[in-house]
Amino acid sequence: MFIEAPTVAVTFPLSQPERFTRIQDSLQTQSRVKVAQLARTLKVSPVTIRADLAEMERRGQLVRIHGGAMAANKSAHELNFEARAKIQHAAKHAIGHAAAALVRDGDSVFLDASTTVFELALQISDRRELTVITNSIRSARELVTFPNITVIMPGGIVRREAFSLVGMWSADLIRQFNIGRAFMGARGFTLEEGLTDVHPDEVALKRAIVDVAREVVALIDSTKWNQVALASFCSATQLTTIISDKRAPRKMVQDARAKNIDVQLV
Predict the structure, then answer these.
(1) Residues 6 or more apart from 9 whose CB is under 8 A from it?
(2) Predicted TM-score (pTM) above 0.85
(3) Among 127, 154, 206, 240, which is most exposed with the fewest C-beta within 10 angstroms?
(4) Contacts with 179 (C-beta within 8 Å, 6 or more apart), sequence order
C-alpha cells in the first residue's frame, strides 16, 4: 500500500539535485513513493520523475518498482537479491558478459553470491568440463541442469538476503580446492582498502577464496568505486583483474592499472 508523500509547496521549477533531495526526503518517511504523486508534488511531468528515479537507481539511492520506487539504504545490504539485481542491471549484464570470456572449457572457477557474478553464471552454460564452486544457491540452480558442468557447493548456513551459503564449514572446505579464477562482487572498492563487503560471514568466506585462487577477478559496477564497506576481503595487490563499466572514475582506473591490475571497462 502506497502512502501519500507529505505535500511540499513548490512555487518554481526545481533543479534535478533539488528533486533528488525531495524524493529522498519522501523515502525517509515511507518505504515507497509513486510517480504520479511525485509529479504532482514537485510540479513536473511523470516523464521527468521516471528519469529522475532511473538516475537515482543508477546511483544506488533507490530501487524502481512498478509505478514508483522503494527505499534503499546507502550500502543496500538490507535489500534482497531481486531488489539489488535491478540496481545498475544493464551495467551488471555487460560486466557479466565480458567476464564470461575468461571462463574456458576445463576451468575450475569460483562464483560468489553477488548479483553481478550471477549475470556471469547465466552466460557460461555452454562450457565443457567446467567445474564451478559457488556459495550462490541461484547460480548453482542455474548451472546444475547442464551435464557438462560440475557444481560444487560448500555447506553452511543459508543467508536469506543473498540466497547464499556461509559459515566456517564453507571456508574450511574451500581451502581444499584448487581454484583457477575467483569471480567476486563487492559492495565497495578503493586502492587502500581493496574489495570490501558488509556481511562478516561473506567476508570470511571470500577471504578463504582469495587465499587459494590463482587469480581474483572483481566484477564491480561504477557505483562501487571509491566506496568502503564494513570489512576488506581482498587487497589491491591480490587483485588480478577488474571488470567494470565505463562510468568508473578515470583517475582511480589509471591508479589501479599503475598497480598492474588489468582494468576492463565495458
Answers:
(1) none
(2) no
(3) 240
(4) 108, 109, 110, 133, 209, 212, 213, 214
Residues 126-158 pLDDT 10s = 999 999 999 999 999 999 999 999 999 987 788
Give yes or no for a contact between 220 and 244, defined as CB atoms under 8 angstroms apart. yes
CA distance 156 to 18: 46
> Following CA atoms 180, 184, 189, 195 in sequence, which dihedral angle do they give, to the nearest 10 degrees?
-70
Distance of CA 56 to the CA centre of its chain: 16
Residues listed for the chain:
266
Task: Take residue 106 and report the three cell numbers written for it.
Answer: 576445463
Task: Tell me if 227 sits within 8 A of 88, measured CB to CB.
Answer: no
What helix, strand, coil percent values describe the chain, rounded to 5? 40, 25, 40
Count of CB atoms situated within 10 Å of the CB of 79: 20
Whole-number Å distance between alpha carbons of 47 and 35 = 9
All structural domains of the chain: 16-72 (1.10.10.10), 89-265 (3.40.50.1360)
Could you give phi then psi for residue 52, rounded to 5 degrees? Answer: -60, -45
pLDDT for 60-85, tens place per residue? Answer: 777 777 788 887 654 444 456 666 66
DSSP class of residue 132 equals: E
Distance CA 202, CA 167 (A): 8
- Torsion over CA: 14, 15, 21, 24 (sign): positive
